[in-house]
User: Fold these one by one.
Assistant:
Number 1:
Amino acid sequence: MKKDPFQYIFRFCCDPGFNDAEEIPALLRYVDEADIDDVAVFANVEEINTGHMSFDEQDVYLAMMRKISALLAEKGVTMSVNQWHSVMHADLGKTLRPEQNFRPMVDVEGNEAKLCVCPLCGEWQKYIARLYARYAELEPSILWVEDDFRLHNHEPLAWGGCFCDEHMKLYSARAGKPLTREEFLAGVLRPGEPHPYRKIWLDVSRETMLSAAGAIGQAVRAASKQAKVRPAGRQFRVMRISAHPRRRGARLACVAAHACGRTPACGPCASARISGKFPVELSARIQYGVYAHPCNAPIGDRGIPGAGKLSVLIVFEIPPVHAFPAAERTAAGSGGHHHRLV
């Protein structure tokens, strides 16, 4: 039987010490029912997030992950780890802890975040590197970097960052003169021929994220010879799909339709490809992930007999990034998601 080129990864969230005794047995049943290949176990996620977690808090998740990993291994299923925050999605009504000497992210108006941090902060880089190194010691299949690993979209900041004093020094040094935020922003956003400040901003922003990614990657490689680090951002606009977990052809048909960008809707776009095979030319473009969320709408105009609600999962094919031509890598990365962090 030909090996399925796609990996089916189930995203698992629970609150250790509160509901893990019920959720882990349910997970093991679902893994069998849905033919899951890998389980991405989240830490400090969503509503149970405590801000930038302490290492004592991480210990609780590490213990749970060791247990889950051993149970999955008995089924031939791997475990990956998704630390839910890096610089942090938003302030979320929380603040940095007194012992967390992280430099906050600052927006173009000079507003300082309460929880979101500057990715170039050395103290934060040491912290996040240690978190990932400790996860890497579990030897997971993948270490996901959450999609808050970005400069934009960190409420309540205006657009995002980073325009902290340290970043303003970097911008000024490259411009050859002291710059105010207002002066620098005016140059970056000047219409017409791009102002030199725009390149300065782009270069420093790229170097900032590469510096943070490098800190994570080096720590992981020191702790594990096989662990992989990959970004968890959405690559395509497949957001909802309804099908029996084992009806993979239907799922891939919808993915293919969205990958070519013909329509923003899941249902009608897939109807013509319900029984077709996934196009080879598109499969080479899918790098890490398409999120499929539960919904009640049928796939296609006719729907699929036996279709039911599908729990959250991710569809993956992971070719090496060098398989992409440079132009395609640039275009695909223009939405703010990196093809490869480390």
Number 2:
Amino acid sequence: MGTWLIWKMVAKNKGWRRTRNIEVLQKRHEDGTYYPDFWKWIPDNWHIYNGVVRLARESMEVEDREYWSVDALCHVLRFETSIRDRSQNEVKINNNCTSGLARLIMAREPDLEGFFKIRTPPGKEEAVKLDGSGYYDNGEQDE
């Protein structure tokens, strides 16, 4: 069964709709853990989102990875574009936005849910998850 068909089935069951409307995305996904300028950055950088999704899926299929670092994928994407474009149009990825990119990808791409290890940003102990629970409600902190 193809990835697209799996996504379509999961999306139908969960009622997910794909959108790139930033206001809708922010309302749907903002939980206090995104870098403050992430929602300003993503509208001009969907090509980076798509590139990271492509690389993540390739690494799952080819290398049989269960998880990987979004930072590593961004470095691979930078390398690929610098080689392909001979550094004329090198991809510019704000390192502050990579954690938000990982969170958004896992929220929007069901087959990549849990693929990136994420941590609560420093000073965000008061942040809450989308279900309203806190990140430290169980008394344990993320490593």
Number 3:
Amino acid sequence: MFLLYSTIKTILNKKDRRISFLRSIYYSLKYKNIIICSKSSRLQIDNPESLILKNGNHLNVGWRGFDSRKKTYIRLKKGSKLNLENNVSFNSGCIIFVNSNGKLTIGENTYLNEDTKLICANEIFIGSNCAIAWSVSIIDEGGHDLIVNNNVKSKNSSIKIGDHVWIGLNSTILGGANIGKNSILSANSFIKSKIPSNSLNVKNDDTLIDSDEFDWK
């Protein structure tokens, strides 16, 4: 009963017509966490224990963005983990997929804007207060083995994105990326290696502007 009361109270406090009252209650009770979502949201979670909301905080799914009619899809396979801090938002059109044994962690006040795809087969960590723009792809493995001289190259890798990182629209972040805190990636960036903290990245790993006093808001 407490979960039902908390979910209803959260919905009423937000006062947003894009929120689906019945769907939010349904998913909250099904997955034993407060999940505030749009009518077009879909959650497919093999084990409810895979979704971990720290300190009883809630998850926003699909109701933020210009077009809340876009389907927002969260898929957590058996053995996966999705760890979320307070006030994480997956905006309309986002696809979140965590494969078996994959671990995805997202810090507080981080949002993924419309049509962003986040595919986790190994481990992805995204810090707090991050802004991830439209149509960004964050993928930690390619889905296929690379064979060189009859030897299979390991495709296991991870992604780490520090606190207060702004990722511009249409960017691609691949396995091996390690993006330092307080950085900006310009639109259409392609990142698969280390980006220092307090830096402005222009399209690729090699074009950087560093500053100890760099900031954004």
